[in-house]
Amino acid sequence: MKIPNNDINRCTRKDEKDEEERFPNPYKAGAASALAFLCGSLFPLMAAMAVDDYATRIVVVVVVASLALALFGGVGEVVGGSCVRASATRVLIGGWVSMAVTYALLKPLDSVTDKKMGEDD
User: Fold this and answer.
1) Residue 64: how many CB atoms within 10 A of its CB?
2) N or C: which end of the chain has fewer CB within 10 A?
């Protein structure tokens, strides 16, 4: 059986069109990511503003951020239709790792910041 050329072209164009539609828009993805980071940072930021002691502030930020990570991980999977417990755990552990790495990378800069703040007095 021979397939006419116009049928082949129509199928090929449809496949190319479908393939182009499958790729996400990078601008929309970037905007969604920025909005997610903004909304997710509000919870620990507000908690940090309410505490004066430095050590207590670190603990409060970690606890509030952990609760927010677990909550948003669970909500994301409810929307996505997957296992809530596994997703919340995955997002929580990923968040803990990123917080630990960020803290470890920025902690050495505390001495530099303290020296510069002392000069302003």
Assistant:
1) 17
2) N
